[in-house]
Specification:
By secondary structure, the chain is mostly beta strands. It contains no helices and 33 strands. The chain is globular, with a radius of gyration of 20 Å. It starts with about 35 loop residues before the first strand and ends with a strand.
């Protein structure tokens, strides 16, 4: 059963290329995969990033923002598939990387280079750092002088790309560099504008098998009224074509700061994420887009939606709902990752389906829809069908109890390499028994090693 078992009540989500929406029956998941506390340190860790070394899949690096300190990122590195972790803080005062505030993201290329983008407290620059020793150390690789926000990073066969929002003006921009081997890369290009119909933010980046670059973003960045989600493509990447006219993919009722019970301070956005298939398999060149919908608007009934494109975003399949719960509770902050060794795709998200406010393992406080877990699903056939949703986190967490203005932050991430899916999330359940702050206090950074053959 692909590393986990389910009851006979199963889910089938079917998406035809021109097709209809999903049909589903509720799934009951088995016990979660054992969880791993990456950081096990005092204080809050949120906005989590994770990457797996494709040249050595037991080498995993995860990191998180430290919202309650002046500067720094919590980092965990393992070379034995999570059995042991080397833990440290980078980007604190005096670090050559600068005083890192936030918005870190990771991408590991096929040569073994681990790339990171991030922001500083001391300037509006968008920076790129590189590790060539499995995440033990990082050196600054690029410092793009701009007023930047919300950077994202992605790698392709021979390049690395970053997109971000230039402020003021909310202009999406992107830059990239050629990569030819371990610690062998060229000069980063000057930032280029990504055409947009107005304000843009909360984006993501993906690089396709031919070096094409796709950027997604939402155009509404304030309030709760809703937003349009766009994609734009540079068809030849580092060559001269540049980004073309954006495509309006869909409309979400989730705005730029949409407050839900589980994120009462930080709020959520539509959080569109991308993944290109560069596996060499049957669906090479397919790109997946995941995002958050709310139905009806301001109901807190948010769902995880997925679309796909086989023509570099010129057209997109109809959206399907991936969460298979029969509640009106919240699912939010989705992450999508593709295993380039197989073409399989997996997704994870924060999920309050088990918090009906009536007690039990999914409810910590008697209040509905404010306690969360991490749930996931996967597809082994190019997104035609998806497995029943399964619970990843062993415990139940609560953002209010973290006592931080930041909640879990704006996003979380996952990695998928060689049949193993690694979601990352902020967790204060203390299900592993090693959170120095105890249960239902500050967040630690968690992950799990989920087998998806």
């Amino acid at each position: 059963m692909r590393g986990r078992s389910f009851t006979k009540r199963s889910l089938t989500i079917t998406l035809a290329l021109a097709g209809a929406l999903a049909t589903a029956t509720l799934a009951t998941a088995a016990a979660p995969t054992p969880n791993l506390n990456v950081t096990a340190m005092p204080g809050n860790e949120a906005e989590d990033a994770i990457a797996v070394n494709p040249t050595s899949p037991s080498n995993v690096v995860a990191m998180s923002t430290l919202p309650d300190v002046v500067a720094g990122l919590a980092v965990g590195v393992t070379f034995d598939g999570g059995q042991t972790w080397s833990r440290r803080v980078i980007g604190a005062s005096g670090d050559p990387l600068g005083e890192i505030c936030c918005d870190q993201q990771l991408a590991w290329d096929r040569f073994g280079n681990l790339w990171m983008t991030y922001l500083l407290n001391t300037s509006g620059d968008v920076l790129v750092a590189l590790s060539t020793d499995g995440g033990l150390t990082f050196t600054k690789a690029a410092d793009i002088a701009t007023n930047g926000d919300q950077p994202s990073i992605a790698v392709g066969p021979n390049s690395v790309w970053v997109s971000y929002t230039r402020t003021p003006g909310k202009q999406i921009q992107a830059f990239g560099a050629p990569v030819t081997g371990l610690d062998r890369f060229g000069t980063f290009s000057a930032p280029e504008n990504v055409p947009s119909p107005g304000n843009g933010d909360y984006g993501d980046t993906a690089v396709g098998p031919a070096g094409q670059v796709m950027v997604t973003y939402q155009n509404a960045v304030n309030g709760q009224g809703g937003t349009n989600i766009y994609t734009a493509v540079d068809p030849d990447g580092l060559r001269s074509a540049g980004f073309g006219k954006p495509t309006l993919v869909t409309h979400s009722h989730v705005g730029g700061f949409d407050f839900i019970a589980a994120q009462p301070d930080r709020s959520i956005d539509a959080e569109a994420n991308l993944a290109y298939d560069d596996s060499g398999g049957a669906h090479t060149g397919r790109v997946y887009l995941v995002w958050t919908q709310e139905t009806p608007n301001e109901s807190d009934n948010t769902d995880i939606m997925l679309q796909r494109s086989d023509n570099n975003g010129a057209t997109w399949s109809p959206a399907i709902k991936l969460n298979d719960d029969r509640t009106s509770n919240s699912q939010y902050d989705p992450s999508v990752s593709l295993d380039q060794t197989s073409g399989n795709v997996a997704l994870s998200w924060y999920d309050t389906r088990n918090d009906l406010g009536t007690g039990g393992s999914g409810d910590t406080d008697g209040i509905p829809n404010d306690d969360f877990q991490i749930w996931a699903t996967d597809s082994t056939n190019g997104g035609t069908t998806f497995a029943p949703n399964f619970q990843v986190s062993q415990g139940t967490s609560n953002a209010i109890d973290a006592d931080s203005f930041f909640d879990v932050g704006d996003y979380t991430h996952a990695a998928f390499v060689s049949g193993t899916f690694w979601p990352a999330w902020s967790d204060n359940s203390n299900s592993t028994g090693d959170n120095p702050n105890g249960a239902l206090h500050q967040f630690d950074l968690y992950t799990a090693k989920v087998s998806i053959p």
